[in-house]
Amino acid sequence: MSIATVSRVLNGSDKVSESTRKKVLDVMERSGYTPNAFARGLGLNTMRTVGILCADSSDIYLARVIYWLERELRKNSYASMLCCTGYHLPEKEKYLQLLLSRSVDALILAGSQFIEENAQDNAYLYEAAKKVPVFLLNGVLPGSGAYSIVCDDALAVKEMTDELIALGCRSPIFLYRSLSYSGKRKLSGFCRSLTEHGMNGQERSFLCPAGIPETVRFLQELEAQGIFFDGCLASDDELAVGAVKYALEAGRQIPADLQITGYNNSLLSLCSTPEITTADNRSEFLCTTAVSLLMQVLEGKDVPERTMYSANLIRRATTRSPK
Amino acid sequence: MSIATVSRVLNGSDKVSESTRKKVLDVMERSGYTPNAFARGLGLNTMRTVGILCADSSDIYLARVIYWLERELRKNSYASMLCCTGYHLPEKEKYLQLLLSRSVDALILAGSQFIEENAQDNAYLYEAAKKVPVFLLNGVLPGSGAYSIVCDDALAVKEMTDELIALGCRSPIFLYRSLSYSGKRKLSGFCRSLTEHGMNGQERSFLCPAGIPETVRFLQELEAQGIFFDGCLASDDELAVGAVKYALEAGRQIPADLQITGYNNSLLSLCSTPEITTADNRSEFLCTTAVSLLMQVLEGKDVPERTMYSANLIRRATTRSPK
Questions:
Q1: What are the start-end ranges of the E strands in B69-171?
Q2: Inter-chain touch A38–B74, beta carbons under 8 Å
Q3: Which of A166, A221, B141, B317 is 20 to 30 Å from the Cα of A196, by its Cα?
Q4: Do B58 and A80 touch (CB under 8 A)?
Q5: Cβ atoms of residues B256 and B317 within 8 Å
Q6: How far is it, in rounded angstroms, from Cα B213 to Cα A316?
């Protein structure tokens, strides 16, 4: 048996007879390499491993996404290789290459922090999508060949704003933390609603520093500057918790004087008293859909490059009851 | 070149000359398998991958642990293969075998849910520890050969209880969610403090159902049964959030009528108003220590099988100020 034959087996070539292939794998097995990743990888030309990239797996939203992704991948006999990139482009790019060098069968980029403002900063994602299937969870990169599954955050925030206004809110503001893909979509939903109600959304949207005490201070400063608000829509639940604490300290009644909404339907929205009205962006559905589509792609099936689904508004005690 | 030679290279045998080894790896490289995990794995006889098992990566405490573990492993050029087992023994065992079959270099079991009550239920951990280094984060399995890094939860709860009593609490209760290794240690700390103060800790400890509304109801029922408490020590922050909500609904002043403490120093303890006194069990320190010890073990160094460190008490608004 020549090394070329072994190489063909290693390559998963179909020019090798089944009996030869078996013989080569048998040697590996006798050498103590089975059942294990090497032999299986070699035999099937796949490691049955998917790389999951996220900015920060300890983020309460991303932690749930990773949980559901790992569970669904495992159900399909794929292992999950996790890599937390942080929020800076050079690291994102470096760790994506790292996962590719680990021969992952596909990449899942969890969270909308992976789409950069400048088109050329996304070039490495285009390159990656040529090598393996790339799935963007809550991000879209048109023409890249990457698959997108996104929650319609714009629509959800538009509808929450509409509802707040219908419930008597006259001066809503929008608090956001970053202009990620998802952050921008939420902002656009707020602005669309305000335009329809004869207000300027851009003027009433504020980039708020991270951290609960920082959010409290930020709202105190807005008040000190004479900017009145009787509704505060936050782009995530942690910002909404800060808004609740601001209201409690300022002696403003929730929801009579100030209505507040969060986003993500995380445990944080339930830890606050009163409990916070929020949007459930269905992280379980996001992940089961992503993995289901990924499995179809790996089987060579044609699936849509873009899938969008709607969020679910969860009404709680920080907004008024509909009449 | 015989297949036996290839097999020897695959095995990382030192009976193969460097030039032969190079030739075999070159073929693999030309076959398009480099730079990648196969070739590197084959050449070095390691996948440079560590398996991380945890019950639930979306748990707010475990999510932080996974974040720090992945970061530290990556710094040492190890990839992280994540597997969430849930809380049932058969799955824990199955998924541990799954990771072993993936040729991981070591296993890290995050969270104290992996130590079972019955000694024979831990047999699979003893077996695993014979194959690869096994690290238990917040668990101890004497004689198994597994390495343990644990926070001294017993001491932390003992000191918190002592402090609450020193601050005027006469009738403390302890709420816990499970009798995991860590759960038992916390309970023992509470009981030790109560014994020293002439009370019976077992009688004042309660297994509380999961969920914030369930905790509120549970405390309302205790009250209805005539069980008085002016201090509530909870084994995690989520339970403490439930205790805060119970007090707010019952019109009991925090901390004048009721002092409350949590555990973990998670974001949940900051989302509550008032913010919750808690113990910081230093998840970053836990993980950097674990990975540092693991690297030493992989280098063949001798490290202690058991490392214990103390938690840090974070005093906030749910407990009285020391005089």
A1: 79-84, 106-110, 134-137, 147-151
A2: no
A3: A221
A4: no
A5: no
A6: 14
Residue of chain A minimizing CA distance to B39: A38
Say yes or no for a CB contact (<8 Å) between B271 and A103. Answer: no
Per-residue pLDDT tens digits for A244-277? 999 999 999 999 999 999 999 999 999 999 999 9
CA B53 – CA B238 distance, rounded (Å): 23
What whole-number distance in Å separates Cα of residue A287 and Cα of residue A300? 20
Contact A212 B71 (CB under 8 A): no
CA distance A154 to A311: 10
Mark yes or no for CB contact B36/A101 under 8 Å: yes
- Chain B nearest-CA residue for A248: B273
Distance from C-alpha of B225 to C-alpha of B220, rounded to nearest angstrom: 9
Average pLDDT on B224-228 reads 97
Task: From chain B, pick out residues whose CB is under 8 angstroms from the CB of A102.
Answer: 36-37, 49, 79
Q: Using alpha carbons, list the distances in angstroms from residue B4 to A6, A31, A208, A257.
A: 11, 9, 65, 80
Q: Looking at chain A, which residue has its C-alpha nearest residue B73? A: A83
CA distance A201 to chain B (A): 28
Rounded CA-CA distance A111/A182 in Å is: 8
Bridge partners of A232, per DSSP, are: A173, A260
Mutate to test the interface with A, among B24, B52, B58, B260 (most CBs of A within 10 A): B58
pLDDT per position as a tens digit, B35-60: 334 333 444 467 899 999 999 999 99
CA–CA separation, B108 and B52 (whole Å) = 5
**Smallest Cα distance from B157 to chain A, Å:** 23
Which single residue is written with the structure tokens 């990773």?
Answer: A66
Integer Cα distance of A108 and A51 in angstroms: 6
Measured CA distances, A77 to A25, A45, A66, A72, B99 (Å): 21, 15, 16, 9, 11
Cβ separation of B47 and A32 shorter than 8 Å? no
Q: How many CB pairs under 8 A join A and B?
A: 170
d(CA B246, CA B175): 13
Strand B278-280 relative to strand B312-314: parallel, antiparallel, unpaired?
A: antiparallel
Q: With contacts defined as CB-CB under 8 Å, which chain B residues touch A241?
A: 271
State the virtual CA torsion across A72, A76, A81, A84 in degrees, nearest 10.
Answer: -20
Q: State whether B31 and A66 contact (CB < 8 Å).
A: no
Which of A34-48, A135-149, A152-166 shows the lowest mean pLDDT across its residues?
Answer: A34-48
Q: Whole-angstrom Cα distance, residue A16 to residue A51?
A: 30
How many angstroms separate the CA atoms of B78 and A282, rounded? 32
Give chain A's count of helices (H) and strands (E): 12, 12
Taking only the tens place, the pLDDT of each residue in B70-107 is: 999 999 999 999 999 999 999 999 999 999 999 999 99
For residue B53, the number of C-alpha atoms closer than 13 Å in the C-beta half-sphere is: 30
Shortest CB distance from B67 goes to which of A57, A102, A248?
A: A57
Amino acid at A76: N
Looking at per-residue confidence, does A107 or B11 come out higher?
A107
Distance from CA of B318 to the nearest CA of A (A): 15
* DSSP codes joined into one string, A222-257: HHHTT---SEEEESSHHHHHHHHHHHHHHT--TTTT
Q: What is the DSSP string of A134-178?
A: EEEET---TTS--EEEEE-HHHHHHHHHHHHHHTT-SSEEEEES-
Which residues from B are below 8 Å from A36, CB to CB? 101-103
**Angle of helix A18-28 relative to helix A3-10, nearest 10 degrees?**
90
